[in-house]
């Protein structure tokens, strides 16, 4: 997965389709679907006081818009966050530039969110 | 199953195992976008007790290094990973959108894909279907808009 051409080859369903990523995702989800159940059935993790799990359950606009924007970025760069970090070992600028963009985008979102919540709570 | 497919499947099983161990030992979801954000924001805010994120991310780099320079050369039919050659603009733009999108949608392929689907979360399923669709649409239309973009730049410059 640190080979971005493979990721792009997987997403390019109309071209010379590379199916290997399907097996990566399938293998990973196969393990978590089976193994998460008994793990989450425990009262607590082995080395921590509690589990930290997402509490949101609702399907809302930020979820869909965010996932859609993420997909576009993934399709443009050919990296998602995990493989980009592992690909740093290739010693090329691309993964580092991707991560720089990721941190900047995330910081921009953070600033936007802060200013939104501030404008919402400011007295009129 | 051929060797390449077996390798992909084995890689996937290891990713699933990694996410399971993090949940079992630390009670945390292995979402890499959230981990990067959490690691940086805790470092900036000077919060302690957040070392697990840095350690996990460091482990990913160490594992990638061991694979690329230790394991891959001794595997039959596996050469060095082709170097990623893309323009800085493509990488910064793609990374920026991934940063905004993962913050807004609370996760990426690992958090929503590997872990969210493992928890049978409906939110994660919706996220996975959505980002798969837009990623595929982006790659399919890539040639078109990259040409348009470079044409526009030429026109403007």
Q: Which keywords apply here?
A:
heterodimer, A: 124 residues, mainly alpha, 65% helix, 0% strand, B: 157 residues, 77% helix, globular
Describe this structure in words.
The complex is a heterodimer of chains A (124) and B (157). Chain A contains 5 helices and no strands. Chain A has 124 residues and is mostly helical. Chain A has one domain. The radius of gyration of chain A is 19 Å and the shape is globular. The mean pLDDT of chain A is 92. In chain B, 77% of the residues lie in helices and 0% in strands. Chain B has helices at residues 3-26, 32-45, 51-71, 88-104, 109-118, 122-156. The longest helix of chain B is centred in the C-terminal third of the chain and has 35 residues, at 122-156. The interface between A and B is large, with 92 and 90 residues.
Concise description?
The complex is a heterodimer of chains A (124) and B (157). By secondary structure, chain A is mainly alpha-helical. Chain A has helices spanning 4-11, 20-40, 61-77, 81-86, 93-121.
